[in-house]
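Example 3.2
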Amino acid sequence: LAASAIAFALLEGMRRYYRHIRNVEGMGEGDPKLIGAITLWTGPYLLPAILLLASGGGLIWYLLAGKRAPERFPLGALMLLGALAALPFGLN
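Structure, written as tokens:
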């Protein structure tokens, strides 16, 4: 439960900081809630792998799309895919 709260707080802090600095939304309000729920589901040890897979997947998607890349990317969907990819490696 504590890891879930920490994961939520980290992403919520990043979301608010970006909005404060740039005066635009950089992340949806549901993304921190989703990472909190994912952390409850998978446990705290997979959190770095999930975030790495999600951000790496977004980067690959952006690079492959080139000039056709959308202005906004669905981080929530990428986090879910990252969780599904990392889940088998975290089960005992």
